[in-house]
Amino acid sequence: MRRDTFLRATTIHLAAAIAVLAGATTPLHAQTPVEVQFYYPVAVGGPIAKTIDGFAAGFMKDNPGIKVTPIYAGTYQETIVKALTAHKSGTPPVTSVLLSTDMFTLIDEDAIVPFDTFAKTAEDKAWMGSFYKAFMLNSQSGGKTWGIPFQRSTVVMYWNKELFKEAGLDPEKGPTNWAELKEAATKLTKKDASGKTTQYGVQIPSSGFPYWLFQTLTTPNDAILANEAGTQVKFDDPKIVEALQYWVDLGKAGIHPPGVVEWGTTPKDFFEKKAAIIYTTTGNLTNIKANAKFDFGVGMIPGNKRKGSPTGGGNFYIFKKSTPAQQEAAFKFVQWVTQPERAAQWSIETGYAGTSQAAYDTPALKKYGTDFPVALVARDQLPVSVAEFSTHDNQRVTKALNDGLQAALTGTKTPAQAMKDAQTEADRILRAYK
Q: How many C-beta atoms lie closer than 10 Å to residue 336's C-beta?
């Protein structure tokens, strides 16, 4: 044996022997856990934060080598700003729940990695293929999956059964088309002795997410606002102008509140009987169930040329500037938290839709659906649901549309002019992506 080889072998054996002796006399140090910072779009506190904290604790119990820290980052808008600011400074969250419509923005900023990178086994791939197709419309682009559906919803119609009875309407049957909606809303509108409206027949909010609520009118009128690639919009399509005209006309008829209607106060207006029919997210179902002091119905969005609603809500994303170990840990967490049993629990506790058929097949959600059938309306509407409006440079394009909608609803522009101006602005913004 050569002398240098003999010396190297002896050194290795000595090192191994020392390691064994050291192990016998000192406790082995636990491996440092992989840290996963997780941005979640809610203000601190409240029942939703408790559920999220519970999920994080449950996951860490099952995966002691990973530490998940939820950070409650405010509204969706505040959360995307914080996430992108952190990404630009090189310290992004490892994962975050952000709007499904933020997908193009996150891709353009080179902030996220596709989930396909981590789905290596047949089981991983089956999990990625298990979500409802309607929810994947805002989660995939260019043949890759960028987001995983978590708190997803559709817009549904809620009505006060007691007020329907008073107005001589069938309390078990909500309006199914535009003509029926206008007729019912007319009968449900009340005025006091001075002629002031005390109860509106229908209320569709137009602050917060005007574009999203507008899709509850464009979709039934068989119009789609943007192409799949997110590079082109058609706001000035006659069918889109017609949908906006219908919304404006409800206000002109005095059966819908005038001007801009607040998103946040719409459920409260429903509880206080200021509105007999409202459009809002299925994510409000648990809130309405807990706070409405009357029997209420939930139905699909009334149709015109067809039925349909946009999907909505948030997806999980994994950020690019986190370490490979953190990304793998985040993938594991996202997979764990979206399993059917937890998706069912989340749906029951919040009112968001179950994200897969497997969630609705769980004993918990089956029982809940039997005891509280309106919880299934969101699921039943999915086959006719469309992608939530989303484009490249999404916030600026959406602002152009929202500004146009509010101009028409407040009467400062006609629907046709408002949509023509919004189209011009959107074309200018999207020119770079054509």
A: 16
Check whether residue 192 and residue 144 sit in a common domain: no
Could you tell me if 282 and 405 lie in one domain?
A: yes
DSSP string, 203-243: E---SSSHHHHHHHHHTTTT--SB-TTSS-B-TT-HHHHHH
- The answer on 429 and 282 residing in a single domain is yes
Q: Is residue 28's pLDDT more than 50? A: no
pTM: 0.87
Q: Domain of 230?
A: 154-311+387-433
For the chain, how long is the longest CA-to-CA vector? Answer: 111
Residue 66 pairs in a beta bridge with 34
H or E element that contains 12: helix 3-25
The CATH code of the domain that includes 402 is 3.40.190.10
d(CA 299, CA 352): 15
Query: 322-362: per-residue pLDDT in tens?
Result: 999 999 999 999 999 999 999 999 999 988 999 999 999 99
Residue 263 amino acid letter: W
Residues 157-168 have pLDDT tens digits of 999 999 999 999
Clarify whether residues 235 and 319 are in a common domain.
Answer: no
Taking residue 428's Cβ as centre, other Cβ atoms within 10 Å add up to 12
DSSP string for residues in 276-344: EEEEEEGGGHHHHHHH-SS-EEEEPPPBSSS---BEEEEEEEEETTS-HHHHHHHHHHHHHHTSHHHHH
Decide if pLDDT at 280 tops 80.
yes
Overall number of domains in the chain: 2
